TrEMBL record:
The lineage of its organism: Bacteria, Pseudomonadati, Bacteroidota, Cytophagia, Cytophagales. HAMAP family: FBPase_class1 (MF_01855). This is Fructose-1,6-bisphosphatase class 1. SUPFAM superfamilies: Carbohydrate phosphatase (SSF56655). Homotetramer. Residues 214-338 form the Fructose-1-6-bisphosphatase class 1 C-terminal domain. Mg(2+) 1 binds at E108, D128, L130. Its cofactor is Mg(2+). Substrate binds at D131, G132, S133, S134, N224, Y251, K281. Belongs to the FBPase class 1 family. Pathway: Carbohydrate biosynthesis. Its EC number is 3.1.3.11. GO terms for biological process: fructose 1,6-bisphosphate metabolic process; fructose 6-phosphate metabolic process; fructose metabolic process; gluconeogenesis; sucrose biosynthetic process.
Amino acid sequence: MTTQEKEANVEIKKFVASIGITLDRFISQRQQEFPYAKGELSQILRDIGLAAKVVNKAIMGSGLIGIEGPAGERNVQGEEQQKLDVVANMRFIRALTKGQEVCAIISEEDEEMIDTGNHEAKYIVAMDPLDGSSNIDANVPIGTIFSIYRRKSPVGTPPTTEDVLQKGANQVAGGYVLYGSSMILTYTTGYGVNGFTYDHTIGEFILSYPNMKIKELGSIFSYNEGNYNDFSEGTKAYLTYCRNQKYTARYIGSLVADFHRNLLKGGIFFYPATSKSPNGKLRLLYECNSLAFVIEQAGGKATDGKRRILDIEPHDIHQRSPLIIGSSAMVDDVMQFIKNEQFH
């Protein structure tokens, strides 16, 4: 074989090499983990993937088509809605409704539970359609967070409040989408954590982070320095400990982005209770629960400072909670520092 022929063979092999496992194929292969499901859960995950692709396209072109910046209204949280918040919310609701496997949706952007009209469906979705959207104008990574639950009310009837007010331990799936230099969809169904990177050339999510695990002890700590004066003495003492240990402070300001980095590199993110917000700031049902499910499946821990996040019984769909989440040894350290603390 001549040198030219060998070079030609190398080029051909590049083009016919396996692209890896797609999200759809991976979901199909794992279907046996859910004997009670008949493809419905798989369809929901596909619908989330589809909506994420559409939202990612809007994000990438937002500066060109005029959908950056505030929408001129505030959501139920009292936060100023961005135009992309509205776009993402509509896209995910539409995809999940048309997929016909979700009977109800709760969203950060909607005050009340959304009845999709799919009363034969068995599942509920809780979501933050676009976390960190205020950063979009600065081209900072943002994300989507989602949780999936099985309904409690009888199939064939309208969904109820009891269906959506479930503790995180009841999740059948949870995950997030990160929109950044690449789009990554990460999820768990209680059998480990897997991440998929979007290949825009073929329009598919490809398995890129199989069986993700977080380090037991990381070296990154992430928090909002602006809240320091409102932290408890125990939390302040932990921050001093982190500095003395020469840990690295990293804070992006987009929950999904901070969480994803710490999951990969090892670290801790915390938005604890403060003197101004004793009940915390992050939303339990569609932010804390999902990420807590992911981190536990990856070998980490998540707490509100007193109890495991996934054990908290919710009483409101927009309930807030403190969140301390990340490498297990680091979470244990924080808990030790804030034990029996009192605000000054």
